[in-house]
């Protein structure tokens, strides 16, 4: 991904089969991803308004745009090569997001499993709370995390749990299951 020299932040909006996706890129990588929900112009205005001083620049997003287009076309995709600006490696939220990022395409985990993975087995609710604040859904695939009984739990991205259900169905079909 290119270094940002002209703007400390850049944003972009690109088409996918499910609708426009947008992102914000900073010095450490992707800071925000907005899943399909808005019209392209509205999403661009929202990102520019919420990230004052950000310049529109497609270059940092070229690989991410290609991967998200593949994803929403139903092809198995991994986003591990996309650098993300996440909380520190020792911060609870950073631990949760990094653990969640390891859950692969078409796989699922639970809030409790993630809590145990980060060494905090009693913290399943706090894990859910951290995932509810995930700034880069899909790249940190919080949609793949469910309750222990298999029910979906929440999803804070626009469109809510129905989008989570659709994404899981897309991945299940994409891996032949």
Chain-wise SSE layout:
Blueprint: E1 10-14, E2 21-26, E3 29-34, H1 40-50, E4 55-56, H2 62-72, H3 92-101, E5 109-110, H4 111-117, H5 124-132, E6 145-146, H6 160-174
Parallel strand pairs: 1-4, 5-6
Antiparallel strand pairs: 1-2, 2-3
What does the model show?
There is one protein chain. The protein has 177 residues and is of the alpha/beta class. It has two domains: 10-72, no CATH class; 92-174, Arc Repressor Mutant, subunit A (Orthogonal Bundle), CATH 1.10.10. Helices cover 36% and strands 13% of the residues. The chain has helices at 40-50, 62-72, 92-101, 111-117, 124-132, 160-174, and strands at 10-14, 21-26, 29-34, 55-56, 109-110, 145-146. A four-stranded mixed β-sheet has the order 3-2-1-4, with helices on one face. Strands 5-6 form a two-stranded parallel sheet. The model is unreliable at 1-6 (pLDDT under 50).
Domain count? 2
Percentage beta strand: 5-15%
Across the major sheet, the strand order is 3-2-1-4
Poorly predicted runs of 5 or more residues: 1-6
Assigned CATH superfamily of the largest domain? Winged helix-like DNA-binding domain superfamily/Winged helix DNA-binding domain
Please state the structural category. Answer: alpha/beta
Task: Please estimate the helix content.
Answer: 25-40%
The CATH class of the largest domain is identified as: Mainly Alpha
End-to-end separation = 33 Å
Tally the beta strands. Answer: 6
- Annotated CATH topology of the largest domain: Arc Repressor Mutant, subunit A
Largest sheet properties: 4 strands, mixed
CATH architecture of the largest domain: Orthogonal Bundle
